[in-house]
Amino acid sequence: MLFFCLLCLSLGGTAQTISKDSIIRKTVDSINSLLDHSVVAKSAAILQKHYADDFVFTHGTGLVDSKQSWIKNVLDTTVHFLSRSHDSVNVELHGDIAILNGKLTVHRQGKSDVSKYALKYVRVYVLRKNVWQMISHRTTQEWHLE
């Protein structure tokens, strides 16, 4: 009987951990999508909140943006992201750090052209002052669509 009670207590703690981790994964995944919707909507306040001050964006071309340069590009009125949608996102937790990998499809209207492309990425988020912030985005593969 003692063994059964210990097993139940042990499983109860595991269930709570799994449930807490599941909630954190869903929260970070939601923020990940929110950021890309905010890029489309040019929502500066959300971008400022969820991109860390030390954010680094390494594009598939090798170009590297900081938080300031990336947000400046996003808010540029001559460039419009028409959509940015995620697929196959995996969230890996390490305490207050979340590593995401997935696929992002981007539809963008530039100064003189419209492009649609997909990319695979790795993103790193960190929990700072109770706010999940992206500290790194690295495009690992990119290809044009249409």
* SSE string, helices as H and strands as E: HHEEHEEEE
The helix content is 25-40%
- Which percent range describes the beta-strand content? over 45%
Mean pLDDT: 91
CATH topology category name: Nuclear Transport Factor 2, Chain: A
CATH class: Alpha Beta
Q: Which shape, going by the Cα principal axes? A: globular
CATH architecture: Roll
Termini gap: 65 Å
Q: Biggest sheet, open or closed, and with what strands and sense?
A: 6 strands, mixed
Structural class of the helix and strand makeup? alpha+beta
The number of helical elements comes to 3
Q: Report strand order across the widest sheet.
A: 2-1-6-5-4-3
Tally of discrete structural domains? 1
The number of strands is 6
Calculate Rg over CA atoms: 19 Å
Uncertain residue segments: 2-9
Task: Write a structural description.
The protein is α+β, with helices and mostly antiparallel strands. The protein has one domain (2-145): Nuclear Transport Factor 2, Chain: A, CATH 3.10.450.50. Helix content is 38%, strand content 47%. It contains 3 helices and 6 strands. A 6-stranded mixed sheet has the order 2-1-6-5-4-3. β5 (114-128) and β6 form a beta hairpin. The protein is globular.
Which tags fit this structure?
Nuclear Transport Factor 2, Chain: A, disordered N terminus, 146 residues, six-stranded mixed beta sheet, alpha+beta
Describe what is shown at a glance.
With 146 residues, the protein is an alpha+beta fold. The protein is built from 3 helices and 6 strands, in the order ααββαββββ. Strand 5 and strand 6 (131-145) form a beta hairpin.
